[in-house]
Amino acid sequence: MGNSLTLQISHVKIGQAADGDIHQYYLTSSKFKDIRMKKSVFILALTCFLAVSLFAGLADAAPKKIEGPWLWMIAPTEAGKGGADSTDIDTLKKASGGSQTQEGVAKNGVKAGAKCGNLYWTWGKLAPTGGNNVNDLVTKIGLGKGDVNDHDSWAYVEFEAKAQKGVELQAGSDDSIKIWLNGEVVHKNAVNRGAGDFQDKAKVNVIDGVNRLLVKVGEKGGGWSMFVGIDTTYTVVAVEPAHKLATTWAKVRNR
Length: 255
Ligand SMILES: [Ca+2]
Ligand SMILES: [Ca+2]
Fold this sequence. Notes:
Blueprint: E1 5-17, E2 20-32, H1 35-59, E3 70-76, H2 91-95, H3 102-108, E4 115-116, E5 119-120, E6 122-124, H4 133-140, E7 151-161, E8 164-174, E9 176-181, E10 184-189, E11 200-206, E12 209-219, E13 225-230, E14 234-238, E15 247-252
Antiparallel strand pairs: 1-2, 3-6, 3-7, 4-5, 7-12, 7-14, 8-11, 8-13, 9-10, 9-12, 14-15
The chain binds calcium ion (2 copies).
């Protein structure tokens, strides 16, 4: 009588990924005749375990960072009150002499070239890495100079998507952050910290068609950075000056 091996493998659904269900596999019974077979059972079980772990790892991947282009504006805070202290202060309203407010931009959007004090809302594509990406960007597009401190930045973007509830939004910021989606505050973290990647998570509801996303980051001192991603399929829309039609800028598939 030669060697024989009988295996019974069961599986159970443990989650959902974009491309299908995630199953966990396990041996429910096995019969083996010699040591060599034991080894193959072990290898089979290990292979199943690694395959499931890898799949689960892919399903948990963070969303892609939104590089935009976003529309940008910055405004000073009170001296020594940048970052966490100014998270809920509408320094945009003050800088624009009352013609713009954070809530107004969050709800109704803003156009490229709109004026705020001596500055104009300007396009800029945000680097997905680095601990000073906002400072690098605002100095590049001419809104600020050198190492900017005690300032707030606003980044505005419109994206087209399909309605979906409970979508995961991830964000990182140096220093504090406040995020509005379609006029509602969906995340806030009044904190002074460094950032080079995502740090916070929030669940948001995406609507059919154009969604309006506004992100405020408060900079106290040192680095000034921002990272925002949303775990759905969307298309970033370029917000042109009022007399032009909005045009599709870039198509982004998230996975
Ligand atoms: Ca700085
Ligand atoms: Ca900082």
